[in-house]
């Protein structure tokens, strides 16, 4: 029995430790750093980069000679007879007489070594270039994946900060609305206020409780979304520290999308040149050595015959006609090259305009948020003074409720300004990151 109790205690301790496991982040940069090591999308992009690196080495392998060795063994269980003229070996036998003869030996061993190396093959070099460009594209895809993921993480991170603020304001509203409701209910019981005033106070109290519950639940959902992006099974804790960026002096890193479009353009140009080079001849050097050993005893070569063969040569292959498929391939590659050129120019222009716009939008959102904080502070002061004056009987409760309603309405405007600022904040942060 004591052993069972001890085992139960250990199990409970382990369960408690597992339940309380937590990953904490004190800044958005820490979230990004964690995602670099654990997010499955980045890991997939990195794995693809390893694959394309191997493909570059594989493409270079086509420049080396190919060497193959083959061997065969034949056991002639029954050798077919051949009719030959009998007077071939004995002239005294009249013509027209034939005799059966068997040619060949029972055991035949064949072996050969062949080597070939392309001396002129333009396709090999174009394939190497394509492999290199694909390797660059894979590296840039890591950067693009990081950029997209960083935006998702920043959105989730700042949304949590926004929900924390909404939860804090809602908790204050619950406290204020509950206090007002208590005063109004007492005065209603004394017949000093109407039922309309009581209903309004009740509505405000219920709304405040509902908003607090929604903010809390939305924060839990957002935390789960962040856990999915970070591939974290345990709980996480966020301590937001927002650093204000001076956008006027911001320097922007190279846009991975523009770099990707440029390399895709180079790849398309290489494919176009490769399709035209398909009309070029191929010159190869070849070498081959063949050997055949025949005997009447298995694996005994004392009374065997050996028949070797060896040669070297040059092989020239000239493509003459293949149903016009190469012409169509050149035309398709040309269309793709034109499209990639247009996409590159569009990406470069879009990136330049976005850099200008993000500075303007950030400054606008920053100043609007600063004004919203000042305005909210004034509304909070008005609500505080209105509460004091209502408690002293200087203003009626209906007017007190009006000041509270104004405060709650302005809180929504304040949270909207905060949301706009957070969005422009992380957009500007991401534009300044060098993802290499």
Automatic annotation (TrEMBL):
Signal sequence, renumbered to the chain: 1-21
An MF annotation (GO) of this entry: porin activity
Gene Ontology, cellular component aspect: cell outer membrane; efflux pump complex
A Pfam family per the record: OEP
Protein name: TolC family protein
The family this protein is said to belong to: Belongs to the outer membrane factor (OMF) (TC 1.B.17) family.
InterPro entries named in the record: OMP_efflux, TolC-like
Compartment(s) of residence: Cell outer membrane
Keyword Signal: yes
Primary location recorded for the protein, binned into one broad class: membrane
Keywords: Cell outer membrane, Membrane, Signal, Transmembrane, Transmembrane beta strand, Transport
């Amino acid at each position: 029995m004591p052993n069972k109790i001890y085992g139960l205690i250990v199990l409970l301790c382990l369960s408690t430790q597992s339940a309380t496991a937590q990953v904490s982040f004190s800044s958005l940069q820490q979230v990004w750093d964690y995602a670099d090591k654990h997010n499955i999308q980045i890991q997939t992009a990195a794995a693809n980069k390893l694959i394309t690196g191997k493909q570059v080495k594989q493409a270079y392998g086509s420049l080396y000679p190919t060497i193959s060795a083959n061997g065969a063994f034949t056991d002639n269980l029954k050798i077919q007879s051949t009719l030959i003229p009998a007077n071939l070996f004995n002239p005294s036998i009249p013509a027209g007489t034939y005799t059966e003869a068997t040619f060949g030996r029972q055991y035949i061993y064949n072996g050969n070594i062949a080597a070939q190396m392309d001396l002129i093959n333009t396709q090999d070099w174009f394939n190497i270039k394509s492999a290199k460009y694909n390797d660059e594209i894979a590296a840039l895809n890591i950067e693009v994946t990081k950029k997209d993921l960083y935006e998702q993480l920043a959105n989730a991170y700042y949304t949590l900060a926004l929900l924390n603020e909404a939860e804090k304001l809602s908790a204050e509203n619950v406290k204020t609305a509950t206090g007002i409701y208590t005063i109004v209910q007492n005065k209603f019981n004394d017949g000093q206020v109407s039922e309309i005033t009581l209903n309004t106070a009740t509505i405000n109290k219920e709304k405040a409780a509902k908003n607090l519950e929604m903010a809390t639940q939305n924060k839990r959902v957002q935390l789960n979304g962040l856990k999915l992006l970070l591939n974290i099974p345990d709980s996480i804790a966020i301590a937001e520290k927002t650093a204000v960026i001076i956008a006027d002096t911001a320097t922007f890193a190279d846009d991975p999308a523009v770099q990707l479009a440029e390399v895709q353009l180079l790849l398309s140009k290489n494919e176009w040149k490769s399709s035209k080079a398909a009309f070029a001849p191929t010159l190869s050097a070849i070498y081959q050595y063949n050997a055949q050993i025949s005997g009447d005893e298995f694996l005994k070569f004392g009374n065997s015959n050996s028949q070797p063969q060896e040669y070297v040569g040059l092989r020239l292959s000239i493509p003459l006609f293949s149903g016009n498929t190469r012409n169509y391939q050149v035309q398709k590659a040309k269309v793709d090259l034109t499209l990639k050129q247009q996409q590159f120019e569009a990406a470069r222009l879009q990136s330049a305009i976005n850099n200008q716009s993000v500075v303007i939008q950030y400054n606008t959102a920053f100043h609007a948020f600063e004004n919203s904080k000042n305005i909210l502070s004034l509304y909070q002061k008005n609500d505080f003074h209105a509460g004091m004056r209502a408690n002293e009987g200087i203003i009626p409760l209906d007017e007190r409720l009006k000041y509270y309603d104004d405060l709650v309405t302005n809180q929504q405007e304040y949270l909207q300004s905060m949301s706009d600022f957070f969005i422009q904040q992380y957009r500007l942060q991401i534009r300044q990151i060098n993802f290499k």
